[in-house]
Amino acid sequence: MNALPVQLGPGDAVGIVACSNPLSGMQRQEVVQLLSLLKGDFSLIPYCGRTLWADCLQDRPALLRAQDLMELYANPCIKAIFDVSGGDLANEILPYLDYEEIAADNKPFFGYSDLTTVINTILQRTGKPSVLYQILNLVRDNALLQQKYFHSTMLGGRSSSDEIDWNFVQGDYMQGILAGGNLRCLLKLAGTQYFPELTGRLLFLESLGGGPEQITTYLCQLKQMNAFDKISGLLLGTFTRLEEQIGTEASISLIRHTIDKPNLPIAKTQQIGHSSDSRCLVIGAQYTCRRLTSGRGMLNYIQ
What pLDDT was estimated at residue 1? Predict the structure, then answer.
């Protein structure tokens, strides 16, 4: 069963929006390629938000970016909304979103990195699932692999978790509704009405930047919020800079040592994060993850 909250088909319309930082020159080129790919290879109809191409903060204030997003939600033709941005500014739009309208609409929101703030706010305020995924990966280094993955999951109905390898580093089973995303960006919601409820849930964390000191302090903040006492399991994606500096195994040891919860199930994958071959996860979906006899972990969506 496909955990993705939408299945697209030829002729379907999708929204393209940028709720975080302005697009760089390279990102603009990628968006042009993406729009051509969606229309040509996938026979989808992209609708772009009005502030998508604005290149300075004055031309794309938070209210206008929020209105862009809400106009895509209000458009009955659109079946899914993909954010192509990242950076720092997505949490600016949170006070301006219409959560009643989002809750009443069936179209899911896709984004990653800084869009962790929007994705978890949608979960907290509406209970609706969103998808942790950067659609620009369709035109980046692993384009052919990503296009095949997009076709099999978004258009073909295959489970989004089928091709993800997990390895347990503590425990052998976990179950719950998934929250989380980028570690730094999730913590922007701390102390606000938008931070997701974690009790009994699975928490997913990944990071692009951050050496040992930064990752330790981020994890300490979550620990001091009692996050690791509340969750039923922890899923780890890639910690790009940390793993480059000290290696993957040492990174896992640092995380385990910092959170200091030997009875908390923890599983790790190298296939979700900021790399161009990253797969997707549905934030707000219910998953189980169990250790198989081979030692590999299997993540399954619960209908």
Answer: 42
Q: What is the CATH number of domain 166-301?
A: 3.50.30.60
Instruction: With a cut of 80, say whether residue 83 has pLDDT above it.
Output: yes
Q: How far apart are the first and last CA of the chain?
A: 7
Q: What is the pLDDT of residues 123-182, one digit of tens each?
A: 999 999 999 999 999 999 999 999 999 999 888 777 766 668 999 999 999 999 999 999
**Mean pLDDT, to the nearest integer, of 101-114?**
96
DSSP label of 240: H
* Pair 255, 222: CB distance under 8 Å: no
13-155 under CATH 3.40.50.10740, yes or no: yes
Q: Are 88 and 114 in contact (CB under 8 A)?
A: yes
- Name 132's bridge partners: 111, 281
Contact 94, 194 (CB under 8 A): yes
Nearest Cα to Cα of residue 200 among 227, 220, 224: 227
Q: What angle do CA 177, 182, 188 make, to 5 degrees?
A: 95
Structure tokens at 100: 């009643």
Write down the number of H helices and E strands in the chain.
10, 13
Which pLDDT value is given to residue 161? 67
Q: Is 172 within 8 Å of 233 (Cβ atoms)?
A: no
Q: How many CA atoms lie within 13 A of 10 on its CB side?
A: 3
Ranges of CATH 3.40.50.10740 domains, the chain: 13-155
Beta strands in 144-243 (DSSP E): 166-170, 173-182, 202-207, 233-239
CATH 3.50.30.60 domain extents, the chain = 166-301
Average pLDDT along the chain: 94
Give, in degrees to the nearest 5, the angle at Cα 279 between 205 and 52: 90
pLDDT for res 101 = 97
